[in-house]
Amino acid sequence: MHIPDGLLDTPVCLVTGGISLAAVGYSVHRLKDSLADRTVPMTGMVAALVFAGQMINFPVVAGTSGHLIGGVLAARLLGPWAGCLALTLVLFVQKFLFNDGGLLALGPNVLHMAVIGSLGGYAIQSAVARLAGDTIRGRVIGVVVASWFTVMAAAVLFSVEFAISQATNPDFQLGRFLALMMLFHALIGIGESLISGGVIRFVAIRRPELLYNPPSSSGRPWRQTLAAGLAAALLVALLLSPLASSAPDGLEAAVGQSELPAPETTSLSLLGGYDQLLGDERWETWSVALSGLIGTMVVFGIALVLGRPLDRNPIPAAGAPRA
Amino acid sequence: MPDSRISRARLVPATAFLKLAASLAVVLTACSLSWDSWPAAGALLAVTLAAQALAGMTLSSLARRLALFLPMITLVAISIPLSQGFTASWMQVAGTVILRGLVSFLAGLWLIRVLPFDTLVSALYALRLPAVVVASLAMMHRYLFVLWEETGRLRTARRARCLGRSKRITQWLAGISMVGMLVIRSLDRGHRIHRAMLARGWDGHIRPWP
Amino acid sequence: MTSAVAIEIRQLTFAYSDGRNVLHDVSFSVSPGERIALLGPSGAGKSTLLLHLNALLPDPPPPASEEATACVLIDGLPATANNANPIRRKVGLLFQNPEDQLFGSTVGRDVAFGPLNLGLDLDEVQARVDQSLEDVGLEEFADRDTVRLSLGERKRACLAGVLACQPGCLALDEPFANLDPRGCRRLADILARFSGTLLLATHDLDAVRELADRILVLDDGRLCADGPTTTILQDRQLLTDHGLVA
Predict the structure, then answer these.
(1) How many C-beta atoms surround the C-beta of residue C207 within 10 A?
(2) Among A264, A268, C34, C129, which is 20 to 30 Å from C43 by CA?
(3) A10: nearest CB among B31, B143, B204
């Protein structure tokens, strides 16, 4: 699911790249707070394991197969900051060792998989886990839910990025593109939920102490984390919107003068696209609604099934690993 | 040893930066191409193909890699007219995507041949990439092959145990348990490596060695 | 070369977090320069004991306030959190699996890890790397990728990494495991030349005979015997009882 070069416009790649750089930079900064001596071996190892894990095939239909992305998984094992760094390393190695994925596209790819996938994924799963009780069962459910949502969020963001890239093209219909993307990714999200949830359940049954336990000293209430996540998402939208909107509006005025060339036609502002969505052909609305419905039901279902026979007991304290 | 920017830069050959810059320049140019600028696109394509030859890439090797890449980029490109309609203009957009993607792919192929991974990382370190990122990258790189092999062994073992073709659900369960085993083994290994690092005086402070 | 190290273990008891008791009331003393073999069947607790010598167990190490009740003393230093680094400098630990200990990208880079952490300047580090590689017979290997080494080469590279820190004591966990006879010979020769305290956990009775003056027998977490090499190795009953000979 790597975005290749050439699909998204260069300004979009650069802006998303800047956001990714800031987010990953912040993650690296936050890693200095935690046990600094564990970071290098554990992050390196989880990055290597996500890379290797992405090679295991899960057959879908007629010869095609899917595979794990691993953002939420990494965050569940290492915490948000190291998880984000681990996924970034995976993307870096995939590009510079195996030529997999674009160069400029590293910007959006890191944003989707490392930032949304791991950081966003961690925020969602810790919120869900706390709602479901801070038990092993709660964590598995958290992983399942977070996996689906991060895949969908990445799909929506990608559609927006693509829409901005096609801003000069008056024929572009965001609604149709969004519908197709969301339906497609709703299914991919199911796969990611199943695999991530299944793996975490597998690990949690045998070695629960291997899952990341946030240090008790951090004490940040999950509401704050969720609020921070939402604020970050809004910031991303804010930064991308000058690229989208041609006519100066309140949003653009707030951000200030955009130096990027304004698209010629009255193109899509973020909110404008949704007007189109509702006005256009029926199948688009149905697609989006269907993907949402699929997601909610199946994710619930998966969460119930994977969470069922698990311990309702609290997480055991991390003990010394075996010699 | 003082960790100054000058001492970082001195350890990396200037050619490394040039190669990085060249690759980036080609990609930036490619991504600014549109359907109308096909002469420029053709020229760029020719340049990147020639670069492959200079870097010592054999025709068969190149063909093999293109055979994997082209279907993928075509699929991605086709999704655009799929949602927007198969008109001439959208097909042109799809064509542009394939062209840009191809040039970028070739540029990347060239870069990884002429710039060894370690040198690339050193170059980025000289450009102020944080030491913790470099060290984690090095650790990942060190154990990548080990984990790759281990994954391969897990798959072989699983295949050896499966008698005949198994149902999809069995394959999914098998895949999940493989990833799960990989997670447990890797985390345990990570802890053991961490211990080995502590045993030789590691305190989290990265000290660069040229 | 730091001077040979003395070790004292006092009523050491240890259990993992899952409740498994691994060491029961183990006590012994090691004088500087002594060469000791730690014998015992698998699961006896040898590895666990060795980890204690580097303050790696318990994890985390006890706080400085518990110095008086410390069970492990290296050169008189109680193994508490504040003494962890000096202790790790004194005792060089060679782990059972060289894959876990050889984490540098090249051999030279890996061997340099220890000296760099000691805060030495680059010239001194280079000198130590060169010397250690020479000591283990891997002079040409400084730029070799660590992925492309045979088992014997890996073990020697790990040993070089430990020797580069110039410890006063070498504690080795099954160093001869899976080595071919030539590899064992090479390793034994290197260890014979080491002048500090030596603590060798192994199954290899030939190596014990050659390298150790004294044997400690560990079984099921308890110290069952402690005596000179010749005496213990002649006690056929003892060896059979604790699974050291078939």
Answers:
(1) 19
(2) C34
(3) B31
- Asked whether the beta carbons of residue C17 and residue A41 sit closer than 8 angstroms, the reply is no
Q: Which of A162, A141, A83, A101 is nearest to A301 (CA)?
A: A141
**Taking CA atoms, what residue in B is nearest to C59?**
B195
Q: Do B201 and C97 touch (CB under 8 A)?
A: no
CB-nearest to A319 from C18, C47, C103 is C18
Residue C2 lies in a domain: no
A322 vs C contacts (CB less than 8 Å): 16
**B42 exposed, middle or buried (CB, 10 Å; 0-12, 13-18, 19+)?**
exposed
pLDDT > 70? residue A287: no
Q: Quick one: pLDDT at residue A248? A: 35
For B57-103, the DSSP string reads: --HHHHHHHHHHHHHHHHHHHHHHHHHH-S-HHHHHHHHHHHHHHHH
- How would you write the pLDDT of chain B (210 residues) with one tens digit per residue? 344 444 555 567 788 888 889 999 999 988 887 767 777 777 888 888 888 877 777 888 888 888 888 988 898 888 888 877 788 888 888 888 888 899 999 999 999 888 988 888 888 888 888 889 999 999 999 999 999 989 988 888 887 877 666 778 888 888 899 999 999 999 999 999 999 999 999 988 888 776
Which residue in chain B has the smallest CA separation from A73?
A: B183
The residue in chain C having the minimum alpha-carbon distance to the alpha carbon of residue B202 is: C117
**Mean predicted confidence (pLDDT) in A171-185:** 83
CATH class of the A10-213+222-246+266-307 domain in this structure: mainly alpha
- Residue C65 sits in a domain whose CATH number is 3.40.50.300
Both structure tokens of B110: 């060239």
Task: Kindly state the DSSP code that residue C106 receives in the 8-state scheme.
Answer: B
Tokens 């009780």 identify what position?
A133
Q: Is B48 on the interface with A (CB under 8 A)?
A: no
C1 inside domain = no
In chain B, the largest separation of any two C-alpha atoms, in whole Å, equals 66
C246 inside domain: no
Taking Cα atoms as reference points, which of A186, A58, A82, A75 lies closest to residue A129? A75
